[in-house]
């Protein structure tokens, strides 16, 4: 164990030096796996009701599938200080909780104990097909409605997510709601992947995103509110006291307490323009 730890340490130091010398990356990564920061016990105390009979996702989203999926994204929750790593994981879990919540104001254990209750969007308003997108053309008869922890939607997300993760997202979008490993991977893919002009949620939460001139003009200050802007700013940001934004923040505050980490500044996006 001791040998393997120092070996890993030397190995990652060597990689950092290598990367540093080619100035590709200047961030410190820990070799401590995220399961050290989020145990099964902590996961269970966060998602108190995900396996209730009332939840359509009952027994779908397991701790193991989350941890195994995270191994495909080795920078997730392993970058920066201990507080930064915990804060990133808490922010990710809070956002996926809002996306899949079964909670309501007077729900048992409060509204923020009901994340991961749904695996797919109920009564979608459309097939979420942007037919103007030529790069990721919709497959006839398929719906690109919200599925999985981040509620991946639109052909232009299913296509590239599938390509990155090794499934045909355009022909076979249903996989995201019946394979929990792929489901968690799509959420992590969305979190980790920059889609210009948006930065990645990951880079925002680890303080690596440097606001562009456009960001500054749009008042897109760095913090959890900017992550909300990346995920659904077009509908939720620039609105004072928006109930959806407040729900995202409520989850984050509860999880921050459970992780014993502060949430950082700029929690909302009430005064931000969307991308
Ligand atoms: C996945 O779910 C879809 C409907 O949501 C279903 O048609 C399909 O058979 C399922 N596939 C598997 C492998 O369970
Ligand atoms: C925000 O909205 C909630 C209802 O969603 C309301 O109870 C509360 O008073 C509002 N707060 C402010 C500062 O307007
Ligand atoms: C920018 O956002 C902050 C809160 O994050 C707000 O106090 C300020 O009024 C905003 N500025 C503009 C120009 O909207």
Task: Provide keyphrases for this structure.
275 residues, mainly alpha, Endochitinase, domain 2, 10 helices, 0% strand, Lysozyme-like_dom_sf, Glyco_hydro_19
Count of alpha/pi helices: 10
Predict the CATH topology of the largest domain: Lysozyme
Q: Name every ligand kind in the structure.
A: 2-acetamido-2-deoxy-beta-D-glucopyranose
Gross morphology: globular
Q: Got a strand count?
A: 0
Overall mean pLDDT score?
A: 92
Low-confidence stretches: 1-25
Terminal Cα span: 47 Å
> Mind summarizing the main beta sheet?
none
The helix content is 40-55%
- CA-atom Rg in angstroms: 19 Å
As for the number of domains, it is 2
Task: Supply the CATH class of the largest domain.
Answer: Mainly Alpha
- Oligomerization status of the protein chains: single chain
Protein name: Glycoside hydrolase family 19 catalytic domain-containing protein
GO molecular function: chitin binding
Keywords: Chitin-binding, Disulfide bond, Plant defense, Signal
Organism: Flemingia macrophylla
